Amino acid sequence: MTAVDDRSRTDAPESSADPLPRTVTARRRLLLIAGLAIALTAMALVSAGTGQLYVSPAEVFGSIMHAIGLDLGPLPAHPNGESALWTIRFPRVAMSIVIGAALAAAGLLMQAVFGNPLADPGVIGVSSGAALGASATIVFGWAFFGEWTIAVAAFITGLAATFVVYFMSRSGGKTEVVTLVLTGIAVNAFTGAGLALMTFLGDQAAREQIVFWQLGSLNGSRWQQFWIVLPLIVVGVVVAFVISRRLDLLSLGERSARHLGVNVEGLRIVAIVVTALLVAAAVSFAGIIAFVGLVIPHLMRMIIGPAHRPLLVASVLGGALLLLTADLVARTAVPMADLPIGMLTSLVGGPFFFWLLRRARRSAGGWG
Amino acid sequence: MRAAVDARGVSVEIDGRQILADASIRVSSGEIVALIGPNGAGKSTLLAALTGDQARTRGTIEIAGRPLEDWKLKELSQQRAVLLQENGVFFPFTVEQVVEMGRAPWQRTPLDHDDEEAVDEAIRLTDIERFRHRQVPSLSGGERARSAFARVLAQRTGILLLDEPTAALDLRHQEDVLRLARQRAHAGDAVIVVLHDLNLAAAYADRIALLSSGRIVAQGSPREVLTVERISDVYAQPVEVITHPETGATIILPVREAMSVGRANDDSLPRTTARSRIALPRKASS
Ligand SMILES: Nc1ncnc2c1ncn2[C@@H]1O[C@H](COP(=O)(O)OP(=O)(O)OP(=O)(O)O)[C@@H](O)[C@H]1O
Ligand SMILES: [Mg+2]
User: Fold this and answer.
1) List of residues 6+ apart from B187 with CB closer than 8 A
2) How far B234 CA lies from chain A's nearest CA (Å)?
3) Alpha helices in chain A (DSSP H)
């Protein structure tokens, strides 16, 4: 930025404005999105092949191609390769991709609704709210909605948590950083108490599952779970895409957005419900994975700017890539052990959050 | 002629406090109406009532002949553009992106073909070409205000509601803003503009409405409204009203004690020239 230059040349001729940046921005967006898509594909092939039983990326590719009826690439050489891929690795890779995408999209939506770049489902307690609903389902053995019960319960409590944060932390159309963080502490304290109660009430198996949620993990992902969360996440991301232009206008403040024809209250409610849907889908089977929704949209915004439509696409891809990578690290960093992925993302996300807080404090009032 | 904005007997109460009482204002196409009055008089509140942001306790408001409540938000945004007194942007959008947001009401209408042209024109008219690719939070107060004004111009609506569009601007850009408002009015638009600079109001407004403590205490041509007694009284500041010897323009000056710098020199100059050198107190950004 040439801030000083520009301002001192008050009388400079108009020609100093170059017509380029519009295309530069478009190219940058395209590069980032294409780069992320390629990296995601490559990472998925590598990750699926890595583990106790090694399968080369080419064999992974071949296995997928054969499954969809194309005679391309080699099949896994190892006799158990094929079954290891299809029963263990692929479901896990697929889960990490959709959950990473969901968390990043949810973070982006929250930031738009709160007018604050520090909102994240994990930080402000929506994830733990959803986990509370999920754990209650386990402990009390509910099954109103069959195999969907966990997701539905997580959605309801996640939605409640989001609305609580929304009504508690906003004033004058935006949310101050301090208010947001403090509200998050309060919500997390409350849901923490709920989870503690569930741990107390539950039997051995339920307890293990609740602890596992609090840590966040993709261990034991199954296709059945994937097919439950996938439609929820697809619906959430599609709706987010549809409302993304209006989210841009919301950045002008709610009154100006209204003057430009946006039904602000309606938009907010849609965004909040979609956030809760995405978070619930992510939390139902993977537990609380914090900071993805904070780190990814922020990084992407630094690269391609804040316009929500391209930002959403980049964040969805970036979130998927981050979680896929984090999961690979989680299951390979320590031999014979599966680290909780939530712990890993917090390990990286925590310091990043510090850095963001400092930055937000410096730039007047945390405007971003 | 049909009124573009027609408000009758509008009252606003907040927390049981009467903020606006029985305000009536009617603005036709081709007209600039200036709202003036001291801080807290209710100018922004009146504008908020006209946009529908602020609920009113009594009164009716019609926009382009139709009650405000009967408009859909989207349709309304194709009728009137609003510049608020404060214009923050939450995320680091560029100036150009913000101006483009002014085109949102025309999305998926035949007029969205004009988007690029409307944006370019607004950017050119407000003289923000040089920083059109900069991020709004990095701009100075006046630059930001001009970007917001450009967004409002790009919306290309027949009604403009402007709350202190000149407050943060330098001399030339203040004139620019009102010249543009004048042009838009000539082209048939209706403009309501809140101003603190009474000389600007006198020079550009067709009519002036003077607010004081939530009431419109005078309404009419600049000459009718800007009288020494009324302005001195409402602002609790003695003023003198002078007619420019050549142009006949109305000039309002606060009466100042004989303590200004360079007074001795000024005495040697003709009276009118000396006066025109005195800078008017101007409200900084609020
Ligand atoms: N939400 C509110 N709650 C309570 N009082 C309010 C509210 N909004 C405005 N007021 C009061 O109403 C009065 C009119 O406010 P308004 O913003 O309309 O003034 P204004 O004429 O635009 O002043 P300024 O020249 O300073 O912009 C002020 O006394 C203000 O304190
Ligand atoms: Mg005001």
Assistant:
1) none
2) 30
3) 3-8, 21-49, 57-67, 81-84, 90-114, 126-140, 149-169, 177-201, 204-215, 223-250, 254-259, 264-286, 292-304, 308-332, 341-362
Q: Please give the Cα distance from B169 to B166 (Å, whole number).
A: 5
Alpha helices in chain B (DSSP H): 43-51, 73-79, 95-101, 115-125, 141-154, 171-186, 198-204, 222-225, 228-235, 263-267, 271-277
The structural domains of chain A, with segments of one domain joined by +, span: 90-361
- Please give chain A's pLDDT, 368 residues, in tens: 333 333 333 333 444 444 456 677 788 899 999 999 999 999 999 998 888 888 888 888 888 888 888 888 788 888 887 888 888 889 999 999 999 999 999 999 999 988 888 888 877 788 889 889 988 988 888 888 887 788 888 888 988 888 888 888 776 656 666 777 788 888 889 998 998 898 899 888 888 888 877 888 888 788 988 998 999 999 999 999 999 999 999 999 889 999 999 998 889 889 988 998 999 888 888 888 988 998 899 999 988 989 999 999 999 999 999 999 999 999 888 887 888 888 888 888 888 888 877 776 665 444 43
| Chosen from A9, A22, A256 to mutate, greatest number of chain B CBs within 10 A | A256
For ligand 1, atom 19: residue with the closest CA: B40
Pick the CATH number of A90-361 from 1.10.287.3510, 3.30.70.890, 3.40.50.880, 1.10.3470.10: 1.10.3470.10
- Among the bound ligands, the one closest to the CA of B211: 1
Residue with tokens 């007619």: B243
Q: Which domain holds residue B41?
A: 3-227
Please say whether the beta carbons of B69 and B81 come within 8 A. no
Strand partners, B32: B191
Question: Residue A279 and residue A122: Cα distance in Å, rounded?
Answer: 9
Torsion sign (Cα): B150, B154, B156, B157: negative
Q: Which residues surround ligand 2, an ion (CB under 5 A)?
A: B 44, 85
B213 C-alpha to ligand 1 centroid (Å) = 10
Cα-flanking dihedrals φ and ψ of residue B279, to 5°?
A: -80, 135
Rounded to two decimals, the ipTM of the complex is 0.86
Output the six-digit token pair for B52: 């529908």
Is there a contact between A95 and A221 (Cβ–Cβ < 8 Å)? yes
Structure tokens that stand for A204 in this block: 């051995």
Furthest-apart CA atoms within chain B: distance in Å: 66
Closest Cα to residue A310, out of A98, A26, A15, A18? A26
Nearest CA to ligand 1 atom 10: B19
Q: How far is CA B234 from CA A26, A144, B231, B237, in A?
A: 54, 69, 5, 8
Give the global pTM. Answer: 0.85
First-to-last alpha carbon distance for chain A, in angstroms, is 16
- The CATH number covering residue B75 comes to 3.40.50.300
